[in-house]
Amino acid sequence: MGWFGLLKPFTKRCYLSESDATIIRFAKVSYQYPHSERFALQNVDFSIRQGEFIGVIGPTGAGKTTLCLALNGIVPQFYGGRFFGHVTVAGQDSVETPVRNLARSVGEVFEDPETQLIATSVENEVAFPLENLGYAREVIKERVAWALRAVGLLGLEKKHPGSLSGGQKQRLAIAAAIAVRPKVLVLDEPTSQLDSLGACEVLETLVALNQNHGVTILMVSHSVERIAALASRVFLLLDGNLVTQGTPREVFGQSDLLARAGLRLPETMEVFRHLALRGQFAGPLPITVFEGQAALRNWRLKQSDLSSQPPATGHSDNSEPWIDLHQVSFRYPDGTQALKGLDLQVRQGDYLLLAGQNGAGKTTLVKVLLNLVRAQAGKVMVAGEDIRSVPVSTLARKIGYVGQNPDTQIFTASVGEEVAFALRTLGMDKSEIEQRVKPGLEEVGLGELIDRHPFSLPKGDRARVVIAAVLALQPEVIVFDEPTIGQDYAGARKILDLTKKLHRSGKTVIVITHHLYLMREYAQRMVVLNDGAVAMDGSLRDVLAVGESLGRFGLEPPEAVLLAESVRREGQSCPILPGELANHLVPPDSRTA
Amino acid sequence: MAFMDRTVQTSFIRDLDFRTKLVWMAAIMTISLLWNAPLLQLGLFGIVLVLSLVARISGRYLTMVLGFMAPFTVFLIVMHGLFNTVQVQRLMGGAELTWLLRFPADWAVIGGRGATLEGLLYGANVALKSVTLLLVLPLVVLTTDVDEMLAGLIQMRVPYVVAFILSSTIRFFPLLFSEAQGIIDAQRLRGLAIEKMNFLKRARIYAGTAVPLILSALMKSQQLEIALYSKAFSISPQRSNYHEIKFQPRDAIVIAWGVGTLAVVLYLYMQFGIGQFTGIW
Question: What is the mean pLDDT of residues B108-131?
Fold first, then answer.
């Protein structure tokens, strides 16, 4: 069993530790942010018993983050606004008890670790809340070691949090929250920036806290598979309303409601829903991959050749590479060897998925490609030119970059100005710029928002502002760095649809992401980086087909692939999409080949 | 900005207590402000430069400070040489100044004026004083972990909230620089050819980062406040400390040495006028 097997026993144990004592009570809570016309929460009413593991799902803007902030009093104490109803946590009213006092009972981990790290070393970060609460030095030492071990950061005590990778920062934020051993742990998308291996380690920690220490956990996540595997109860929020709650089976059983919310089913369930629709499966649909694998015992896979079907590589392998990295190495001043003799060729018209665990070298590779850092060894050629002597600004006209966090790439006061900035650098005059800004924004669906301040838009739209601004330079290649982080399923699809449109218009697209399940209908080629070098390179289908072995690189194959792997014989093609798998599955009692 | 990061390499200065370094910083600053003799000022600057190297302050940082100050140094020397005759003459007890050149009387603004040797020397003293004061601060700030600084301030009975704000401010500057660099990088990735720009145009670009920088700083400070309260910040005055900082015997020796040096300098200055501006040294 691979690393993801760690999740297997969780589902069983989660239900064991619940007691009857109510620890969280939301009584008819409605909340409206200042200067907002709509209610972020509307008449939300629920109770949570001590030791429960609650999964919260919902589309962007459903009120999930507000719900989390109401649990430790930040809403409404910090933001103000109009608050109705009562929230009680561990016997304390979250409106009347100061936030700092609630911190003793409620640990909160926010989505973006950058915004919650305070200290200048890893150990001090974990010690900070314990110091504030007046714990003795010996207790702090013991708790710091325990929390860092729990999140896999032991040995990095003296490192500056700023020098950690995104995933490590996320784990550090969790360590600081759990060190207090709060009665309630609230986590808003805690694993969104982690690779699968890192996410699994963190989730294992959460389950251990839940099981061994009776910590009540409320976790918001867009990963329905993880919620299905871990939560004892699931809340579905939509437009500020708690529209349904129940066991994962009860909530995910309401597929129409989920579709209305723009959410997807856990992938195993989706496969079995296809089978049920064609009358090949009866009974409750399995919701976790392990239940699915058990249900598929004795099933077979139809013999067919999927390798010729899309997705397959779109470029001609004989064409000259447009980007050619040869034996590229890069070492950071602190001694970290990020790239080790990396070889990679990208051809015009490629749609390439670049994957790898945190610290594999993906970000450094992009920095080298953009000339933001210079490789100490090897050669980087772009369009036949050695980029060593090419300024960043000139290279930007060939390779566009859309970063993970759009906010760090926005620097003007209007959506139109963001696009105009790049046009100005091309030396265009005012009238020409005016003529080109609107069509540029319309291309990404933002034509109506030309005068809005970028920061007044939702994150998905802010990302599209950056895409429009980058496209203004008409680069041949566009690199998208983790474009789906922090996006709900519909938002992520919207951005990926845009990448597909660009690819169809002839652009070369490179997407860096951990979310492999999202990329199956988009990418043609997949490159896996590991330890600063290319570990795998091939068609998306061929790379995904290695299944569980991707765990070696900290990657999580889609559940359809794992299910296919459990029934696939050697030499058979691998279905990678739920519908495709359902089409190729043959029940045990069927005589058809 | 990596070169503004605290030095992690062990050195004699790095290992001293924060309070010891504060005493030395105060002593050097006092001496530098007291002295007007250019040769002594040059000696003090040399000592601070050597101490910076001993403390393993990043060479890039030192080069940046010296490079940044170079045009100001020239400006100060020239301006004092040309225009500061009254103050220089008063400091020298009304003695005659040594004229190096004189401009014709019919020239506008500078007509009848000229450059004096004493004025140039006094300008050199002011320039060296400025560079010394600029270098001595990082000698303390960049060789001390912010948390050690915080612990040191608390032990000096500075209220925790005040000490935290002070340490956060110090920590904020490298963050601000790195944020500004991020904005510039984002602009370069949108085709802005900053490398082809002259100093003035570059300065305009850097000034242009102010608005997004302030906006981002405001957002960050709000998020920081939420994070602080979520971590029980200032819940009670009975806060404990993870790190214990103790005065070592070497700290006592170094402090005594610093205070002693300052006392000797003050005595020599007041008793014999050593350090006062006399024209040559």
Answer: 89
Tokens, residue B278: 């006399």
Residues whose CB is less than 8 angstroms from the CB of residue B160 and which lie 6 or more positions away in sequence, other chains included: B154, B234, B237, B239
Which one of A104, A123, A132 makes the best mutation probe of the B interface by having the most chain B beta carbons within 10 Å? A132
Is the model more confident about B245 or about B189? B189
Q: What is the largest CA-CA distance in chain A?
A: 72
Interchain proximity B231–A118, CB inside 8 Å: yes
Q: What is the mean pLDDT of residues B19-33?
A: 94
Cα of first residue to Cα of last residue in chain B, in angstroms, is 39
Q: Domain A323-558, what architecture?
A: 3-Layer(aba) Sandwich (3.40)
Residue of B nearest to A399 (CA): B189
Contact A426 B191 (CB under 8 A): yes
B112 CB-contact burial (10 Å; exposed 0-12 / middle 13-18 / buried 19+): exposed
The answer to whether the CB atoms of A101 and B235 lie below 8 A apart is yes
Closest CA to A53 of A263, A192, A212, A238: A212
- Does the domain at A15-105+182-254 match CATH 3.40.50.300? Answer given as yes
Given the cut 0.85, state whether the ipTM is greater than it.
no
Domain positions in chain A: 15-105+182-254, 113-181, 323-558
Query: Which chain A residues are closer than 8 Å to B236 by Cβ?
Result: 132-134
pLDDT in tens, A541-593: 999 999 888 888 989 899 999 999 999 888 788 899 999 999 999 998 765 44
Identify the residue among B195, B196, B223, B229 best suited for mutation to test binding to A, counting A beta carbons within 10 A and taking the highest: B229
Kindly determine whether residue B229 and residue A409, on different chains, have CB atoms separated by under 8 Å.
no
Question: What residues of chain A score a pLDDT lower than 70?
Answer: 1-20, 166, 305, 307-318, 590-593
CA separation for the pair A87, A65 (Å, rounded): 15
